[in-house]
Amino acid sequence: MARAAMKTPEWPTTRGTSDRLAPDPDSRATEGHVALTVVNRSAQPLTGLHIVGALTPGWGKDWLGGVALGPGETARFEWPHRGGAHHLRAFGVDRQALGYRSLRPEPGSAWIWEFVGPVSPSRRSS
């Protein structure tokens, strides 16, 4: 008997915001570290960011430290490479997930995680 392929459910997103995680060809991390640049091109602030090792229980600290990353803002984070995969999670103003990704970086690698979304009503052209 054939088994049906299981479809992974999509993570909930807020107000049409989407994300993209890719290697950053213009950057490198400090030797032995991993770098992540978070770019907010959405119409809302990012209010939470978690980066944890894949085998770490829970989500740990908020890397934004309670400070929102507003529309048009960028932040860069580095941490020591300890091997294995990492899980990344970001939240918007309503604490609904804007993005969830897994990353298996190499030492010295740099990544860019970009959030894009609908244009806010005040920025739409007439």
Please state the CA-atom Rg, rounded to the nearest Å. Answer: 16 Å
Query: Helix fraction?
Result: under 10%
Which shape, going by the Cα principal axes? globular
Proportion of residues in extended strands: 35-45%
Q: What is the residue-mean pLDDT, rounded to a whole number?
A: 83
How would you classify the quaternary structure? single chain
Which blocks of ≥5 consecutive residues have pLDDT under 50?
A: 1-14, 119-126
Spatial gap, N to C terminus: 58 Å
Question: Helical segment tally?
Answer: 0
What is the helix/strand order?
EEEEEEE
Estimated structural class: mainly beta
Biggest sheet: strand arrangement: 1-7-2-4
* Number of DSSP E strands: 7
User: Main β-sheet, in a few words?
Assistant: 4 strands, mixed
Could you describe the 3D structure shown?
- This protein has a four-stranded mixed beta sheet with strand order 1-7-2-4, with no helix packed on it. A three-stranded antiparallel beta sheet has the order 3-5-6, with no helix packed on it.
- It has strands at 18-23, 33-41, 48-53, 74-80, 86-91, 97-103, 110-116.
- With 126 residues, it is mainly β.
- The model is unreliable at 1-14 and 119-126 (pLDDT under 50).
